Amino acid sequence: MISNQQDPTWWQNAVGYQIYPKSFYDSNNDGIGDLPGIIEKIPYIKSLGVNFVWLSPFFASPNVDNGYDVSDYEDIDPQYGTLDDTFKMIKQFHQNDIRVVFDLVINYTSDQHHWFQEAQKSVDNPYHDFYIWRKPVAGKVPNNWVSLFGGSAWTYNAATDEYYYHLFAKQQPDLNWENPKVHQAVKQIIDWWAEHGVDGFRLDAISHLKKNQSFADVQDQEAAMNNVFGIEKFLDELSTDFKRNHLMTVGEAGGVPVTRAREWVNTKTGYFDMIFQFDHVSFWEKFTVGKIDVAMLRKTLTNWQNGLEGIGWNTLFLENHDLPRAVSYFGNDGDMRQQSATALAMMYFLMKGTPFIYQGQELGMTNVSFDNIDQYRDLDSKRFYQEELAKGATKAETLFKLQKKSRDNARTPMQWTSTGGFSNHQPWIEMNPNHQTINVKNEQADSNSVLSFYKRLTTLRLSDPVLLAGKYQLIDTHDHQLYVYTRESARKGYLIITNLSDTPAAYQVTSDFQNLELVLTNRSAEQNPTAMKLQPWSAYLYKYERK
Question: Is 344 helix (H, G, I), strand (E, B) or coil?
């Protein structure tokens, strides 16, 4: 029986699986994934060996931003099912010893939420102060603050002769956390879902709750809205709600440096159990295209491993619903797809922290090469396309950038079979044509597949205490190919050796590593550890003892 109260740190010895409901499995053949579809696939999720799922939003929403614009936090978007489906899904996951984490979007709501529908009517409306308003300045927007989706962060409301603030789309007005009534309203939502069996929350855009109260022009846009001094009060109050309900929390906190993160995830006094940081995935460099530098990757991930050691807990991830596919972004999704997907898996999965797998990552699913803007569904990608063309960029070069970085890369339907297997209807977004070869059915039949490799990693990860608590130590190779590190406890440990490049490399295991035992590799050939010849995208895991 699942009990978060009796096992409050369950999430440390766990592997998470992120589900994007719209693209996971369509049970009623309308082209849209749904909750009954997720229930149907619980045996598959259980077969991965994961202990919890995180579901992207499926609450009531006009779907301007694919459900991240919530119009009712205690109701379900009909395209996904009903509240009864939700309760049934939670129950069935629990019966399979899998905990359930929901996405909670509380930096902003949809403009269709009844709070905002009321708020915009008049300055005297009880809900007016739930949002952030400013009078025009010289007949124009109040300041130079911009939206992360482009343009001004202010939209005019004629009924009150005011502008309201939105960090994202104009249909996503930001909540005013300076108003204590906002916290009270959100607290009720947290309590309600906890009563209905939810085990935790991933907190969307949580580092943006506090806005710069001077409302003056800024040189650095971050100063207006990210990790602003004073946010601690809001996070501390929320933390009380989560802890009272024994909920696991992971905050989305891009731009929060590791020095600050120590305060956020301190095991004794922190606000959250974990945070997602994006230093290693260049999250803020939205549509830049370039090759990943392995030396920078080593430096960044090691900074977080060392920075939180003994203080807080890391999240380990390469993909999510906002990022391109890892094998396309970090790896080689051509003829080295299987090799690079498994090498990347070993590289990140065995560090200290809680690993997350994004749906399809365990198959080595790749970016999709849409060649027409009409194939895209993501509002940010469409906005970027129009802005680039207006600046004089060509369609071809703009589409190339989208093919590399669009959020829709991660949102194409899950590839179940060679015919697709997601739906018998035209999906809401086109499937990646490579589903004919890359799919669950093929991967399950191949003992050397990416899927089989992830299952082995998960089993290993959850069975050895060294991989839970052992210290991380980088072995810096001072090159742009290898990522080598150890996880060690009481002079016993694991040595992880990966070549994250398209060219061969050499590596020599030093003599202080004794009784070496090869545990897992993505290559067939055995190696002499003292003179390793590493093929491109090869990965080796050794068990060892030290002198």
Answer: helix
